[in-house]
Every structure is written in C-alpha cells, then in structure tokens.
Amino acid sequence: MRKIPPVCLVLFFLTLVGGIKKKTINIGIFLNDDDHYETSTIALTSVVRRINLYTKVEYLLRPHIFRTQKHEIWKTGQTACNLLRKGVAAIFGPEHPEINSMIQSISTNLEIPQFQTFWNPLQAPFVTNQQPEKPLQIFNLHPSPWSLSKALATLIRENDWKSYAILYESDEALLRLEQPLNQLHPNDPAVAFKALGSPENYRVVLKEVKNSGVLHFVLDCEVERIMDVLKIAKEQNLMTEFHSYILTNLDAHTLDWSELKNIRSNITALRMIDPADPHVKNAALIWNQNMKYDILDTVKNAAIQKELNRTRPKRRTYNDILPSKLLTKTILLYDALNLFISIFSELDSKLNVTLRPLSCESNLTSEHGRLFSDLLILKRNHHLLLQPLTGPITRFDTIGYRRAYRLQIVELEEAKFRVTGTWDSSAPDKLNLTLTQEERVTELKKKIQKRNFRVVSRLGDPYLMRLPDPPGKPLLGNDRFEGYAVDLVSEICKPQHLNCSYTFELVPDGMYGNFDPVTKKWNGIIKELLEYRADLGICDLTITYERRKAVDFTNPFMYLGISILFSKAVKAPPDLLTFSHPLSFEVWIYIATSYLIVSLIMFIVARLNPNDWENPHPCNPYPSERENIWTFRNCCWLTMGSFMTQGCDLLPKGISTRLVVAMWWFFALIMTACYTANMTAFLTSSRMGSTIESAEDLAAQTKIKYGCVDGGATSSFFKDTNFSTYHRMWVQMESADPSVFEKSNKDGVKRVVSSKRKYAFVMESSNIEYEMERNCDLVQVGNLLDSKGYGIAVPFNAPYRKAINEVLLKMQEMGLLQTLKDRWWKEKHGGGKCTKDKQSDDAAATEMGFDNVGGVFVVLAIGVVFSLMMAVCEFLWNVRKVAVRQKITPKAALIQELKFAVNIWARQKTVNAAISMEKFD
Ligand code: GLU
C-alpha cells in the first residue's frame, strides 16, 4: 500500500472541518504559453488549495488562469474585460510586455491590484506617468532593474575584473548592466560590447571575442539560449580555466549543465531561490503530492470540492518538480498569490470588502483597490498565511518594486551550482562570501594536484637538451629531455610542493615569442600559450613589457642582463715598441711637448733672472762682465737629464729658474713612477693586442661586427632603446651584410669562436656565463647593459600562477634555484673548466691614458707659469737696481735690460763701473 505523507494527512484533517459557506474571490492569472506553464499552474493551484482548505480563511479562492500568446493582445484584453465583469480581486501577470502594458492600464484605471513576478523595466516609466491621485496598483516581486544591476556591479567588482566583454542578446542588458558600467573608472580598460544576434551568429561573435583576447564575460541572454552560447564558446576554446563568466539570468541554475561537465571555466550566477531552503523543499514536495494523491476528494463542502477538482493539475506524464529546477517567476507567483490573499484577508476582516463587477468601458473603480494598496505599502511587516519562498516580503517602493530580497551567488562545480555567497538588497555594496579565501586556495591546490601541466619549451643549452636515443629504443615523452628547465619543473611538481605532473613539448617553430606588428600575431612559446595549447612556457624566456601584455609571468627564477661575448686575444709576438705600451700615444706626445716648452721657459727665465748671470772668473771679485750659462741647449740637457732620472751637472741659481726646474723634477718623478709601474703590469699581463672594453667601444668601431639572436628579447632591447649608443649599435646590426643575427645563442657562440675576433655576440649574461665555463677562449666584455629576469610564462588569469610563485620563492629561499643553476652551469656538460683562467685575466693591464696622468701635467703647467711670474718680478727688481746705479731713468734701464735679454745669442753682459766695484757674491 502507498504510504501517505504527513502533510497530506494534515490537509485531510482540515478538510473534515471544512463545511462552511465561503466568499468567492475571483482572481485573474495570465501565464505565458511556454514550457513552464504547467509548473507555474501547479505552484498557483497549490496556494489556492491550501488557502481554500484553510478553515480560518473565509474565502474560496477562484483562480482564472489564462495562457497568453505574445501576439494575442486584443484577445487578452477582451478576456480581462470579461473577467472584470465577474468582479475580480487582483490580476497576476501577464509577462509579455505589450499585453502587460494594457493590463497595467486597466488595473490602474479600475484600481485593481496587479502582481508581477518578472523583470519589467517599463514599470517605472508607466507608474511615474500616472496621475498622482491614482493609487499604486502595480506590485512587482521581481528585483527592480536598478537593484539587480547593483548586485551585478558588486559581483563584478568583487571578482576584480579589470576588463571584460558583455555578450548580450537584447538592449535590455544595458539596463541590467548600467551600474557595473557606471562603476568603471575612466582609466580602466574598455569593456567590450558584443551583441549575440541570432543563434546562427553566435559562432562569428565568439570568434571575434576570442581574437580580442578577452578572458572575462558577462553573458546576458534568455535562459533557453545560455547553453547554446556556452557550447559554442567551448568549441571556440573559450571555456578554459583562464576564462570566467557571470550569467545575469536568475534562472541559470535550472539548466542541465551535464553537457559542460568537464569545463574548467569559472561560471558564476545569481538566483533568488534557495533550493536547499526547507520551505522551498516542502513546497515542491506538496506540489508533487498534489499531482499524485486524491485524498482531497474527501472534502465535504461541495463548492470547495468542485473548486479543487477544477484546479487539479492535469499532467499527462508525471515528473517530480525539483526545487533546483524552479524558475524565479514560478516561485514568485506562489509568493505573490500568498501575499495577495494574506493582505486581502486582513483588509476584509476589517472592512468586509465586496468585489463589484467592473467594466472596461466605464470609469467605475473597485471598492478595495485603493485600500489594498495603502495597506500593502504602508504596513511594514505583513503576516503571510503561507511561508514565503523567497524570503520575507516586507516593503515595496513608490514604483511598486519589492525592496528587500536576497540573492544567492552560485558557482558551477562539476555540473552543479554551489553557493559561494549571498547579496542582500539592504547592503548592496558588499557580498557575504561563504567560501573563504583559504578554502578557495585549498580547493585550487587540490585541483592542481590532479593536473598534468602541458609545458612548452625550446631546445637550448642548458635549459632543454635532447638526450640521444639508445639504439633501437627511441625515448618518449619527458624522457627525451634533460636540462635546467626539466629539473625546475620537476622540482615544482614534487609532492612537497605542487604534487602535479607535467609533459614537455617542443614549440613547433622553435622561437621564444615575438610579436609581428604587420600580421599582429605572436609566434613561438607565447603563441602556444595564447592559443591555450600549453599551460606553462619555460626556457630562457625573458620577461619583457611587450610579452607581459600578451601573457602572464611567474616571478623570475633567474636574474641577468645583456652583455657582450667576445674571443680572448691570442698572445701576440713581442713588439719592438712594447716599451711604449704603458703610456698611451697621446701621453707620449704630451710629454714631448711639455719637455720642449719647459726647456724653452727655463731658457727665458734664466735670461731674465739676474742671479743666473754669473761671474765668469770666480777669482776676480769685480768682474767687468757677467756670463749666463743657460743656453737653450743646456736647458734641454737639464730637463732631459732630470726626466731620465740621471740629474745634471749644471744647476740654476735664481729662484724662478729653480722653481721651473723643481716643477719639472716633480713631473719627471711621477711620470717615471707611473711608467715603471705600468710596465711591470704589462710584462706580466697575458692580454695582448688591441681589444674592446665596452659596448661603447664596439659602437665606436666598424672592424669588429656584432649581432644577437634574431627576434629575441636582446634584439628588442636594441630596437626599442632610446639610448643613443645602443641605437647606433642597432642601426649597425640591421645594416650589416652579411646578417649579424643568429637563430640561437649556440649559433652566435659558434660564430664568435670561428670569426677570430672579427665578431662579437651580444647575449644574456646567464648564457655568457654558461659558455665561459666551457670555452676558456671566450670572454665577457664590459658590464651589463640592462637588468631583467627569466620567468615561467602562463596564460592570463592562470589560477596556478600564484601557487607556482610560492614554490619559486620557497626554492629561492632554500637555495634550490642556485643549486640547480650550479648543477647545469658549473658541473654538468663540461662546466667549471675555466675558473683558473678567469683569475689571470683579472690581472690584465691597460695602457695609461691622459686621464690617468693629466693631473701631473696640470701641476707642471701651474708651476711653470708661477716661475715665469717670479722671473718677471726678479727682472724688474734688477731693472730698478740698474737705474739707480747707472743713474738713468727706469724706462731707459728697462729698455736696455730688455734689449739684452731678448738678444739670445749674447752670453756675456758688460758690467757698469759702479756695479763692478760691488763685490760679486
Ligand atoms: N632570452 C631571450 C628571449 O627570451 C632570447 C635570447 C636573446 O634575445 O638574447 O627572447
């Protein structure tokens, strides 16, 4: 025997006492002629049955349910007018906008409450355009466009979407998305709008969207079309884990998602109904039972019995109504009916309302409409006869929209929606998230553990190298490769870290990833990631600004900069002029010039200086003549002797001449010391011949060609630089014939080795280090031109990027990254060969240029100028003395002495009698 559920027994009990006469209340219900008509009818009749059987209510609810077609405006109008003649208490629906605006007008004119349970943006303009004295008769339990828009805005903001595309079916979507669009900052990336058009058009639209690279979507369409759009999105590879969707339709939860079971995209939706709510479950249970059991047929009251029979659902094939499949409008219809009868009974108990017949042609209004409206709007908390299924229905605003309600935020998880939070109209700017951030991270980690990462890379020592196949047994999968990248990924995937698995694949074109501005397409590893054929891109892939615009990168696992790889000079045979190498040619020229100038100055000063005019016959204390030994030849001899550190037997006596000589000695001392010291370094140095020291040196010459990897980060650096030297280098590289670009670092290194110092390769320092560990004839020239890092590239929005970053950080702190580097740089494949050579290179000496010794020249020049001034003073003092002794004017004495001084051939000077009487010292 079938077991009868307890709820039916309660109803049965109620029927036994239901034998009294009840007041009939007609209500008109207009339902859409769609797939949900039956479920809506069941929901309605359930309320009707429960109310009719509820003895405390003195009514017999009499619903008149009409199926409405979109085009049947006139017919529906007639039906409504016929119904009014019977005297109706309220009208529910209809949903079709055109029909609804007609019913709205009738309701408002005749003052009959109308309940709506659907999205109706036309309600606000209609209500505001009514005469002010007319009472509000339209009540909508569906969220108002404004508040639903607010909920979506908050959801988008909380998701932290910086850019997204709105895929919309009708222009009404823009009303729903008004608030999200308002909250955009002018600097935010633009939001793309894409009208979906007809279903045949979806593929074209989604293809365009895919090409634009957008990852976040707001999908606004009828619930029936959601699946069609998403299936095509899946086909277009737009349902990966990097994409996320927000569905604006409140009925998205009712769809069968099993077809999209394996999608990885995050799909979020909002819903008014909580299928897990016991009241909802109970209501659905009753609806199902109403269709199964005939126990209500035992009702004694004939009128009630008749009514029950009339409204019994007649489903041909029976399927259980599941709470999770209930449409918002259905459940709101239930609540609306419940609300109406609850308020009406409250009003009737006070005023005993009569439902008078009305006519569409007359202006006679209902008796209860205005009072009903006042009671519904003014009273805050209504006691409802049945438990409402969408939360408390407390208030309506002046337009007639329901004010307070709550939405659930649901996320698709293996073809089912699970609740991740709620949004409440009383606090519209925030979400109450039930799933914490930690829980999300834990979930993500679990998902990663199950994953096999598709890793794309390219061959290049020591990051990824192909292992030779053993005879007759070719290697497969990851076993084919070894290298730094393989070890790095395997470390990341170890059980103590991400506990994942991975599969290495080679990038088909072997390129790193370069953007072609003409075709507007990427190549290499970046292309693979952009087309979601790989999850990780790893090799010596430099993090650049341009690449970062297309894909995401993890934190760098290696830091480096651009530098120059060049061959060391081979020991040149000793040169005849080796002795001159410690000083540069220009310094030698400066020394020779200084030597001549100082000798000349010495000569002039000595002629001017009276102390250098000596007694030629020391035995004669009163000589008639004086002699000057400082001929130009002697001056040159003195300066030469002191420069050669040999000294000289002739020495000056005047202060100024001694000052000149002292300055020259100082100069000679420093120069000799510098020369000797640098000569020693030169003799012990292994480096010979001319070489380049920096990028500037390279740029300044044309003999040595230089190039870099074609289409890599290094070539981009030179191409995009604003720095003049590097720009000049780029121009030279581009114009070189034959081309100086190479396909890979390996080719570049080969060219450096084979070109015998006629080619330098500009490459990244990490790779230079690697090469220098193995080939001792190679050398890094100059410093790093920039500073950057290698990172693991991932598609934008990759959920595992954060987890990999954490592992990389841990590995860095534990020194694992350095260990890995040492293993592949210094230990494996011939590393560590050239450590000793490096030290001897460090001792290399360079010739001293003018910059090194310029100061000594300056000191010499200052000293000499000073001594010249001294010489002039001494000369003038002597002129004065001569004028006094010879009793001539100072001018005459000056002319006489000057004439003598400039006569460079005169070596003896006649001494005046008065002077000769003075004893010569
Ligand atoms: N690491 C470079 C890149 O990611 C390639 C080598 C280079 O340009 O020096 O493009």
TrEMBL record:
Residues 1-19 form the signal peptide. The record marks I692 as: Crucial to convey clamshell closure to channel opening. One of its GO terms (cellular component) is postsynaptic membrane. GO terms for molecular function: ligand-gated monoatomic ion channel activity; signaling receptor activity. It comes from the Eukaryota. Residues 462-531 form the Ionotropic glutamate receptor L-glutamate and glycine-binding domain. The record marks K719, K810 as: Interaction with the cone snail toxin Con-ikot-ikot. The chain crosses the membrane at residues 587-606, 659-678, 856-877. L-glutamate binds at T542, R547, T714, E764. It is a multi-pass membrane protein. It is found in: Postsynaptic cell membrane. The keyword ATP-binding does not apply. Disulfide bonds join C776-C834. Keywords: Cell membrane, Disulfide bond, Glycoprotein, Ion channel, Ion transport, Ligand-gated ion channel, Membrane, Postsynaptic cell membrane, Receptor, Signal, Synapse, Transmembrane, Transmembrane helix, Transport. Residues 452-827 form the Ionotropic glutamate receptor C-terminal domain. Belongs to the glutamate-gated ion channel (TC 1.A.10.1) family. PANTHER family: IONOTROPIC GLUTAMATE RECEPTOR (PTHR18966). This is Uncharacterized protein.
